[in-house]
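Example 3.2
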Amino acid sequence: MKKNDYLERILGARVYDVAVETPLEFASGLSARTGNRLLLKREDMQPVFSFKLRGAYNKMAQLPAAVLKRGVITASAGNHAQGVALAAQQLACHATIVMPVTTPQIKIAAVKARAAHVVLHGDSYDEAYLHARVLGRRRGLAFVHPYDDPDVIAGQGTIAMEMLRQHPGAIHAIFVPVGGGGLISGIAAYVKRLRPEIKMIGVEPVDADAMYRSLKAGRRVKLAQVGLFADGVAVKQVGRETFRLCRELVDDVIRVDTDAICAAIKDVFEDTRAVLEPAGALAIAGIKAYAGRTGIRGKTLVAIASGANMNFDRLRFVAEEAELGEKREAVLAVTIPERPGSFREFCGLIGARNITEFNYRYADPKQAHVFVGLQVRDRNETRKLVQRLRRHRLHTLDFSENELAKLHVRYTVGGHAPTVDDEILYRFEFPERPGALMKFLSAMSRGWNISLFHYRNHGADYGRVLVGMQVPPRDKRGFRAFLARVGYPWREETNNPAYKLFLG
C-alpha cells in the first residue's frame, strides 16, 4: 500500500459511532515555560480515556458480518483492550481479550465491565500476544492488532483530520507518543499529504525506544527488554507497516527518561487538572526536550495527550520523580569529617534551602557519609552548590541523575557490610504477581547468598527490586545463565558510586 492511499482511508474511517472529536486546548503554563504556543490534543477525553478506540472500532467495523459473528480476539494490557471491548459492544459481537497476568485488577475490571471475555496469560504483552494468536486460529476469531494494521492506522489518523480543521494556522511540529507506531503513522500519513511543512516528531522512553533504533538502523530492531513505566508504549518491536510509514514520513524521534515523563504529567495537571498516564504525557515531555535542545521560540507546537488510564497507586512515585524531572531537586552524597561541629558547618553551607531527604550513617572514626535531597531552582543551582561544597573540602557527588540512588539507596542507607565477600549488585524489574520472587529464588544456585534486598511498590505493573548476591568469580558463567533463565529485566550496579559509598 502506498502512503497516499491512507488519505482516503482516513477520510472514510468509521470512528464516530464510538469516538468523540476531542478538543485542541491551549496550555498556558507550558506555553509560558517553553516560550512557544503549545496545544494539547485531548485524546484522554475519549469514552475509554484513550485514542485506542478509534483504530479498534474502524478495524472491526470493516469486518464482514460473518466474521464479526464468530467474534474477535486481541492482546493488550490496557487501552487497546478497552477500545476493542467498547467496539464489540457497539457492533454486538463477542470479544476475547488476552491480558498478561501482571495486568492490574482495575484494567481487567474495566474490560470485563464491557462484557468482553478476559483470558490471563503470561507475564508480558509478548507472551499474551502469542497466546492470542494461537487461540484466534484455533477458534476462528479475527485478530484486531493494536497497531500494525492499515484500518487501525487509518482510525488513529482521524486525530490529524480533526487537528488541522481545529487549527488551520501555522504549526511548526506535532509531537506523538510512539509504541508500536500506529498512532504516529496514521497522523503522519494525513498531515504530510496536506501540510508537508509540518514536522512529525515521535517521542519514546529511553528504555523502550524500538522506533528510534529501527529508524537509525534502517531496519526493524527487536529490543531484548523494555522499560515498563510507560506501559502503553512498552513494545519490543514496531510493526512492519508502521515502520515503513515512519521511515517515509517521520522527521525525528526524541527520547525522554522517566523523570521527564513524571514532570510532564505534573505540567499537564497544573494546566488542565487532568492526570495523564505516563505514555499519555510522552509527547509533552518531548516538546520540552525539543524546545530546550533547539532553543525554538514563538512557534506553535502540538502534543497528543494520548491517554489517562493512570493507576492511582502510581501517583506517589510520579510526584516524587516530577521534582527530579524538573531539575528542582538535587540528590547529593557528601562526605563530612566525623568530628563535633562538622554537621552544623555542612548545614550552614547548604543555606536556607528546603531539605527533602536526609540520611546519615556512621562510617568510621574519621568521616561520615550524608545522603541529602534539596529543593533547588534548576540544575545550574545544583552545580553551584556542588562547587561550593567542594571548595570547602567536602567530597561531594551529584546523584540527581543516578537511578540506583534515586530508586533504592535513598531508602536503604544503613551502613556497609565489610564481611560480605564477592558481593555483586543488580537491579531487577519483577512482575507484580504471586510467585515472582519464588521463581527468582528457585533459579538461583544454592551456593549463592542474598546479602541485600530492597523492594518498594511504585504502583506499577512491576516491582523495582535491588538485590545483592554473593557470587564467587568462578560462578560468573553460571550467573549469566541464571539471568537468562529468570528472564526479568536487569541492570548491574556493582560499580555504581552510590552503592560503593553507602552500601558496598
